[in-house]
Write a structure and sequence with these properties.
The chain has 193 residues and is an alpha/beta fold. The protein has one domain: Class I glutamine amidotransferase (GATase) domain (Rossmann fold, 3-Layer(aba) Sandwich). It contains 6 helices and 12 strands. It has a 9-stranded mixed β-sheet. It has a 3-stranded mixed β-sheet with strand order 5-6-9. A hairpin with a 2-residue loop joins strand 11 and strand 12. The longest helix has 12 residues. The N and C termini lie close together (7 Å). The relative contact order is 0.18. The model has no long low-confidence stretch (mean pLDDT 95). The chain binds glutamine.
Length: 193
C-alpha cells in the first residue's frame, strides 16, 4: 500500500525517506491522478501559500478535499498544518479538515527556527519526550473539543489528531525519531487501507 507524499514544493523528500525507514513505500503525488493511486497522504512542510497555488492548478485541491472527506488518512507537518486547519491567521484559504486555529510564523523572527524539547502523550510510547525541529512554524492557538493532543511545546499543542488526520507543527521527518510516521502508518492500516 503506497503512501503518497504531496510533492509540489517543500521537504517532501525527507518525508519519503522517513516513511521508507518506517517500513512503508512512499510515492510522490503531484497531480490529481497520482492522488488516486495512494491510500494515505503526507502534506509536508514548505510554504503554504505556494502549495495552495500549486494545488489549484489541476483540481488537486478539490480531489484532495473529496478524498479526505471519504476518509483518506493524512499527515500534515508545519505548512501542512496550515493547510489542514479550519482557521488560519492571517486569514488564508485552507482545506479546513481540522478544528484548529493556527497563527502562521508565530514563534518569532529571531528564533523562527529552533530545536525544542517536546512532551509526548503515552500514545507515542517511550520515552515521553522528543526533540522538535521548528522552522518558521505555525502556532496552534485553539484546539477544538474533538481534537486529541499528542505532544506539547511548553503549553502549546504541537502534535494533534482527529480521526484519520494527524498534524505536527514541527518536522518529525528531520530527526531519527520515527514515532510520528509509525503512528501515522498504524492509523492508515486501521482504516482498512
Ligand atoms: N511558514 C510556513 C507557512 O506558514 C511554514 C514553514 C514550514 O513548513 N517549515 O506556510
Amino acid at each position: 500500500m503506497p503512501v503518497g507524499v504531496l510533492a509540489l514544493q517543500g521537504d517532501f523528500d525527507a518525508h519519503a525517506r522517513a516513511l521508507e525507514r518506517a517500513g512503508a513505500s512512499a510515492v510522490p503525488v503531484r497531480t490529481a491522478s497520482e492522488l488516486e493511486g495512494v491510500e494515505a497522504l503526507v502534506i509536508p512542510g514548505g510554504e503554504s501559500t505556494t502549495m495552495l497555488n500549486l494545488l489549484h492548478r489541476d483540481g488537486l485541491f478539490e480531489r484532495l478535499l473529496a478524498r479526505a472527506t471519504e476518509g483518506l488518512p493524512l499527515l500534515g507537518t508545519c505548512a501542512g498544518v496550515v493547510l489542514l486547519a479550519r482557521r488560519v491567521e492571517p486569514p488564508q484559504e485552507s482545506l479546513g479538515l481540522l478544528d484548529l486555529r493556527v497563527q502562521r510564523n508565530a514563534y518569532g523572527r529571531q528564533v523562527a527556527s529552533a530545536v525544542v524539547p517536546l512532551r509526548l502523550a503515552p500514545a507515542l510510547g517511550e520515552p515521553p519526550s522528543a526533540e522538535g525541529v521548528f522552522i518558521r512554524a505555525p502556532r496552534i492557538v485553539e484546539v477544538g473539543p474533538e481534537m486529541e493532543v499528542l505532544a506539547w511545546r511548553d503549553e502549546d499543542p504541537v502534535l494533534v489528531r482527529s480521526g484519520r488526520v494527524l498534524a505536527a507543527t514541527y518536522h518529525p521527518e528531520l530527526t531519527d525519531d520515527l514515532r510520528v510516521h509509525r503512528l501515522f502508518l498504524r492509523m492508515s492500516e486501521q482504516n482498512g487501507g
